[in-house]
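tool_call: predict_structure(chain=1)
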Amino acid sequence: MAKPRPLPASIDDTEVLLREGDYLADRSLATTLFLSLKMGRPLFLEGEAGVGKTEIANVLSSTLGRRLVRLQCYEGLDISSAVYEWNYAAQMIEIRMAEAEGVSDRERLGDDVFSERFLIKRPLLHALEPDVSGAPVLLIDELDRTDEPFEAYLLEILADFQITIPEIGTISAPEPPIVIITSNRTREIHDALKRRCLYHWVDYPNTQRELDIVRLKVPGAEERLSCELVGFVQQLRSTDLFKLPGIAETIDWATALTQLDKLSLDPETVNDTLGALLKYQDDIAKIQGSEAARLLDTVNAELAAAGTAG
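tool_result:
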């Protein structure tokens, strides 16, 4: 983790901050992120899986020198997994030991077993704790996987950044965490929660930005190969697939092809390595063979016309 540093003072500084973490953001994303940091508002990021939503929180943590607290959401997530729970086994041992020692003061015993040393802190409670490096980055990842009751509970926390534990009292954050919320939009998030946040849709990158990302993330890839594979991925996103490849898959594919010492794409290589790019058999079957050859021909024709590769 880097040495703690102040929040960016401008949109340009925000772009520089992200670039230092090897994240190439477009201007609109950098603007929304800057405003989120400046206003102290959670940033709600929606978009397809693999477009770089989660990575923003990781980059902020590393470049700002802040602790990262991640809450990975899933169906059935509840308070005991997200906020806190009591260590019931340790409490029972404490009660048995007190009984063996003849302790009969129930009120004192209750205060003891419901003290902080028996409290198991989960991500949301950890995010409210003070830190010498500054408020942590709280990543609430894939919120759309949870159910509405948890979403409503989260709304209360984001309102005041405090949590009430009946046996102890209210715990408030001395400084609100930097909150990044992501959603793959498998369901709609309630408007009430969105109103607490600044919103940004993270889209697939255009050709030039995706090429810049590949150059940055996979520096060992040949320039011709990078141009061809990015062009191929861009073509794929215009086809009717169950799951379109994100930038994460593009980087994986570029890395895989580099490991194979490929200097350029050919139909056989595309067919053999589609599993690094597409994650559903139906999609792979649809692209393999003649369709892969057709897309590759289109890419090469475009590159030749542009004089980019040849």
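agent: The longest strand covers residues 178-183. Proceeding to next step.
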